[in-house]
Design brief:
- This protein is of the alpha+beta class and about 160 residues long.
- The protein has a single domain, classed as Alpha-Beta Plaits.
- About 40% of the residues lie in helices and about 25% in strands.
- The chain contains five helices and six strands; from the N terminus they run αβαββααβαββ.
- A six-stranded antiparallel sheet has the order 2-3-1-4-5-6.
- The longest helix is centred in the N-terminal third of the chain and has 24 residues.
Length: about 160
């Protein structure tokens, strides 16, 4: 009987440890930066292609970016047609990217063409705490909407998608 109980306890401990390890493996320390774009009227497909290629080039000049996606399969929002996703190795890499020479160089191509954009930065709670980002239940989303007249910074509600 003791062997049966010890075996059951050992099996439960092993299962719980495996589940915890699997859960931790699904929480990377990277930070995801998502930008959806509405181009200025008259922006040509060639200009858009150049801006997207510029985003891909940034990853080669700024070592804190680990991956870039530039082909949007679906973009929501009236007039928004493209998206760019950059994965940063950690929160420091994201912070250091702001106003970096790599970002400034890309902005020379991108900003003159951008009509409006929305930005969502995603991180796991442990990372976002270091960034100083407040959370709504379960999904941390920090959104910034920038247009010609300035910007808006706020939190998106996971349930409604509305700004809080």
């Amino acid at each position: 009987m003791k062997k049966l109980i010890l075996t059951a306890v050992a099996a439960m401990a092993l299962t719980m440890g495996t589940m915890e390890a699997a859960s931790a493996a699904k929480k990377p320390k990277t930070v995801i930066h998502v930008v959806t774009i509405k181009w200025k009227p008259g922006t040509t497909p060639e200009q858009i292609s150049g801006a997207l290629q510029g985003a891909e080039t940034v990853a080669n000049t700024y070592k804190g970016i680990t991956r870039v996606w530039t082909k949007a399969l679906k973009v929501q929002g009236s007039g928004y047609t493209h998206a760019i996703v950059m994965e940063f190795k950690d929160e420091k890499a994201l912070k250091d990217y702001t106003d970096s020479p790599a970002q400034k160089e890309w902005y020379k191509i991108y900003l003159p063409l951008r009509g409006e954009s929305t930005t969502v930065v995603l991180a796991n709670p442990e990372i976002a705490d270091k960034l100083g980002v407040a959370f709504l239940p379960s999904i941390p989303l920090l959104a910034s909407v920038a247009g010609a007249g300035g910007g808006f910074l706020g939190l998106l509600s996971p349930a409604s998608g509305a700004s809080a």
